[in-house]
Amino acid sequence: MNSDPDPRLRFDPQDLGLTEFPRDFFLTDTTRIAREIIGTWFARRHKNQWYGARIVETEAYLGSTDAAAHSRRGRRTPRIEPMYQEGGHLYVFFVYGMHHCANVVTRPAGIAEAVLLRAAEGPGDTPSKLLSGPGKLCKALGITVASSGMDLLSGGNLCLFQRIGKGPDIGISKRIGVDYAGEAAGWPLRFFDKNSPAVSKSKNI
DNA sequence: CACATGATCGCCT
DNA sequence: GGCGATCATGTGG
Q1: Is the pLDDT of residue A205 over 80?
Q2: Distance (Å) from CA A79 to C1' C7?
C-alpha cells in the first residue's frame, strides 16, 4: 500500500497554472526526456488533495544495452514489467530492504527505458533535505510499489506537470550508485539543476 | 530451495 | 570517507 504524503508537500497545480504533458513527450529519446524533466512537477492526489515537488535531479536508464538498467540484456521479470509499458507510466521498485525509487517510463511499449526521479524541491519553504534522494522523494510523497505501472496521463492520482518559466541551468554527470555496470557506469546520463540546494555538491562532477 | 545483492540512507569517524 | 540496516528479487541448483 502507499502511505500518507508529507503535509508540507500540499500544493494546488491549478493555482500554479500547471498543465499535463502530451503522450508524445514520453515516447522519444530517453536521455533528452531525462534532461527535460528537470523543473517539472511530480504530483500525487491523495484524499482529493494534491501533493507535489519540483524535480531537480534525474537519471536516464537505457534498456537492453545499458548494464546499469534493470532491463539490461533484455531482462523481463514481473518487477520490471512496467518498464515495458508505453511511455508516461510509472515504474517503482523497492531496494536495500527499505527504500522505494520512482521512474517515469519512456519510449513506445515494448522498449524498456525509464528516467529515475532522484531529487526534488517541495513547494514553499519546505526543507531542502526532505526530497534530496530517490528514496526520500518516494517516502515524502508516500509512494510505494503499489503505484508501479500506473499511468501518469490518464487523469488518475499521479501526474507529471510541465515546467513553468525558463529552464534551469543543467549540470551533467555519470550516474550514482551503479559502479557494478562496467563501462555504462561512466555514461553521462545524470542531469541536475545546478542551482538547487536539494542537489548535493559532492555528487556533482 | 538457498543464497547473494542492490538505481539508498543516516550515522559514524 | 566508511559501514550497517534490512528484505524482495533474481539466479542457480
Answers
A1: no
A2: 15
